[in-house]
Design goal:
With 770 residues, the chain is α+β, with helices and mostly antiparallel strands. Strand 34 (644-652) and strand 35 form a beta hairpin. Residues 355-514 form the 5'-Nucleotidase C-terminal domain.
């Protein structure tokens, strides 16, 4: 590439994350060019995560817009630059990839052509620029093999092995202020791509490189102001910036940030941080006021220019011509109707409220109806090469890029491409039930190591249900898994269908890289090849498909205590709801343990104060939670003396629909009193092991509370002293908060000795680890 510098810096220790949102500084769109004879106002406009969204998208209210499109964004920037020549435009990566039909169906050439006309100064490299592989990206830089040439600089200071990337680029404004833009990307790129895609490249730790380079550029008088263009979540990144970084622009997570104005980084220096959002929903202006006399930034703030304001400028004719040509080319193929009568399916969302204004953002950590639909397609659209049905369908949340809202119930080719734009191949792997349970465990991510999000929720075919305990350590959270309403068999081999990106271990689902699974990866390409084609086939076979009416994954924290025959258990729930109005979002649920039950209110808030860190709730454990509730019941033995009886834990919706059924095996086992010894029978009841005084009085009454139980009780529980201990989803004895431990003869004898000292009936439980 032209006109950029390349600089390599060794890795340094990174600082710890610490951040706190501040109140936004209100400011109109536009720029100030004065503020004192030596103060210069720099208007640094930026866009992030465009993803080929080149067209304007109207909002629900008349005259409003959800997305401005590139022609309007270009108009606004060029007009702003005329008003203040000390203005510049940069991009933060993911300009292409996962794109709508208009751009994506033409290899994103329309997006690159439009950006070339917008006077873009430079762009950070994003992970989606690598979607088609490194050779294809090189072809874009060179403008060959059918790709439109990129005519602006791409930056990636921490990337080794791609000579087309620069580390930084310096702009000397008309006022004479030198601004250095340093581009970098988080080092988790490989986890977001099909395994092997970027093996020829090295992604170093970005923060030490940004900070060292900023210090060097200022020390060498090459820059007066340094801006980090860091493709990562701004809220997590800005506290880590060093003293010589004056501002930071971010992206990747699609969350807009305009509230971090003149905030303090970890080292105490002042910085302003911003991210525009995604899809031209906003443009951001990082406005810097620089005093040339002192050589210092005296003020900075992030100004939000929303899509409606951008559209109000009009359209840049040169960019509009490119967009119009692309729209016309794609129109006929895009409008083809696939099916009619299909319902609305949505991705997960989260919200933030600031000064009474609600901002809606993406939520990949909660269950979604669209993820469930795709999971069903990955199970039901094709068979394995032996002609056998696929057992389980899965999809990664990041592979779903739009909602499905059919106009008049009609789904078009363009609609399918919108939510499945990657053109992935599909296939299946073979894995054991224990390995599938590990796959579910790996939905929770270690920030900075595996992901920039605390969870990446899998969409699952409707025959899968599971429970989890979010309070347990990572790797130990799955507490039950049902396949076709039967407990998963840890040793059984299941076929799992999905896109090959995920099946090869993408999104850091590392268990899929295990050689025993990887060797079974099989691509299905007959008669169709790509994910969107199989999705189209599934919808044609199921034209009236509607969103499911209950969630599949439920968080349950269960803490039982026992006092004689009295049982108490504290229960709290998570992940009960979807996130859109009209979807399953219960206001209350019924929790039942044995004969005890309680109706509890469900909090369906979509706000998460810790959405971007390890303490996340709705972006890690799901939407829809309850406060802890205490259930109390008395153990009633219906099993033979010395045996056990199971108290199932269930959760139901207001209409009686089971959210968690008894089939999950959650709950606890009550140990029945052992039968009295022959010698004790002749001692007038002394040292009787039949339980408490109250229980003994009941036992003395003929034909009442007989341990044989009712027929219904026998049918429901059916446990006896010879039952084997229950196992968890991994095939190991339960040790967590939801045990189903049986009792063998030796254990029963030992328990009987303990009861001699304690008296009364006993309940066999194990406490949840804190």
């Amino acid at each position: 590439m032209r006109n950029h510098a390349r600089f390599a810096v060794g890795s340094l220790a990174t600082a710890a994350l610490a951040f706190a949102p501040l109140t936004a500084m209100a400011a109109p769109a536009g720029s100030e060019t004065t503020g004192g004879s030596d103060v210069v106002t720099l208007d640094l406009y930026n866009l992030t995560d465009i993803h080929g969204h080149i067209e304007a998208v109207p909002g629900k209210a008349e005259g409003t817009y959800k997305e401005a499109g590139l022609a309007a964004a270009s108009c606004y920037f060029k007009q702003a630059k005329k008003a203040n020549p000390n203005s510049q435009l940069t991009l933060l990566g993911d300009n292409i990839g996962a794109s709508p039909f208009t751009s994506g169906s033409d290899n994103d050439n329309p997006t690159i052509a439009a950006l070339n006309e917008m006077e873009v100064f430079a762009s950070t490299i994003g992970n989606h620029e690598f979607d088609k592989g490194v050779p294809a990206l090189k072809d874009r830089f060179a403008g060959k093999n059918g790709f439109t040439q990129i005519k602006f600089d791409y930056l990636g200071a921490n990337v080794e092995g791609l000579k087309e990337l620069g580390s930084y680029k310096i702009w000397t404004s008309p006022s004479g202020v030198k601004v250095a833009f340093i581009g970098a990307i988080e080092d988790d790129v490989a986890t977001k791509l099909a395994p092997g895609t970027v093996d020829m490249l090295k992604f170093n730790k970005p923060v030490p490189i940004i900070n060292s380079l900023a210090t060097k550029l200022k020390a060498e008088k090459k820059a007066d102001v340094v801006i980090a263009m860091f493709d990562n979540d701004v809220e997590r990144s800005y506290p880590l910036m060093g003293k010589d970084v004056d501002g930071i622009m971010g992206g990747d997570t699609h969350k807009p940030y305009f509230d971090f104005n003149m905030v303090k980084a970890n080292d105490g220096h002042t910085i302003t941080a911003t991210a525009s959002g995604s899809f031209t929903d906003n443009m951001s202006n990082l406005q810097i006021k620089f005093d040339k006399a002192t050589g210092k930034v005296v003020e900075s703030k992030a100004i939000k220019i929303d899509a409606t304001t951008l559209v109000g400028c009009g359209e840049d004719p040169a960019v509009k011509a490119i967009v119009d040509k692309a729209v016309a080319k794609a129109k006929e193929a895009k409008a083809k109707v696939v099916t009619e009568g299909t319902g609305n399916f949505y991705r997960g969302i989260q919200t933030t409220t600031k000064d009474g204004k609600v901002t809606v953002g993406e939520n990949r950590g909660t269950e979604s109806t669209l993820g469930s639909l795709i999971g069903d397609a990955m199970k039901g659209a094709f068979k394995d090469l032996d002609g056998k049905p696929i057992d389980i369908g899965i999809i990664n949340a990041g592979g779903i890029r739009a909602d499905l809202e059919p106009k008049d119930g009609k789904v078009t080719v363009g609609d399918i491409f919108a939510f499945m734009p990657f053109s992935n191949e599909v296939g299946y792997v073979k894995m054991t039930g224990a390995q599938f349970t590990t796959l579910l465990e790996q939905q929770w991510k270690t920030l900075g190591k595996d992901s920039s999000r605390p969870m990446l929720k899998l969409g699952l075919s409707s025959n899968v249900k599971y429970t989890y305990d979010p309070t347990k350590p990572m790797g130990e959270r799955i507490t039950s898994v049902l396949i076709d309403n039967m407990p998963i068999d840890p040793a059984k081999v299941y076929s799992v269908g999905s896109v090959t990106f995920l099946l090869a271990g993408g999104d850091s689902f590392d268990v899929l890289k295990d050689p025993s699974i990887a060797k079974t990866l099989t691509t299905v390409s007959n008669p169709l090849a790509l994910d969107r084609e199989w999705m189209e086939s599934y919808l044609k076979a199921n034209p009236k498909v509607q969103p499911r009416t209950v969630t599949q994954s439920t968080g349950i924290t269960f803490e039982p205590t026992v006092k004689g025959t009295d049982v108490e258990a504290t229960v709290a729930l998570r992940g009960l709801s979807f996130t859109h109005e009209g979807e399953f979002m219960p206001k209350e649920v019924t929790i039942k343990l044995g004969d005890a039950s309680a109706k509890v209110a469900v909090n369906n808030t979509l706000e998460d104060a810790n959405a971007a860190n390890e303490n996340a709730v709705i972006t890690a454990d799901g939407v829809g939670f309850t406060e802890p509730v205490m259930l109390q019941t008395k153990a009633v033995c219906t099993a033979p003396a010395g045996g056990t009886v199971h108290l199932p834990l269930t959760v139901t919706a207001p209409d009686g629909t089971e959210i968690v059924s008894a089939a999950a095996g959650l709950g606890m086992d009550a140990m029945c009193p052992a039968a009295p010894k022959a010698d004790d029978k002749n001692k007038g009841g002394q040292n009787d092991q039949s339980g408490t005084d109250d229980q003994q009085k009941k036992d003395d009454q003929p034909n009442k509370d007989d341990q044989s139980g009712t027929k219904d009780q026998k049918s429901q529980h059916g446990n006896n002293a010879g039952d084997k201990p229950n196992t968890n989803a991994n095939g190991k004895p339960n040790t967590g908060s939801m045990p189903m431990t049986g009792v063998d003869a030796a254990s029963a004898s030992l328990a009987m000795l303990v009861l001699l000292g304690l008296g009364g009936a006993a309940i066999s439980v194990r406490k949840a680890r804190k």
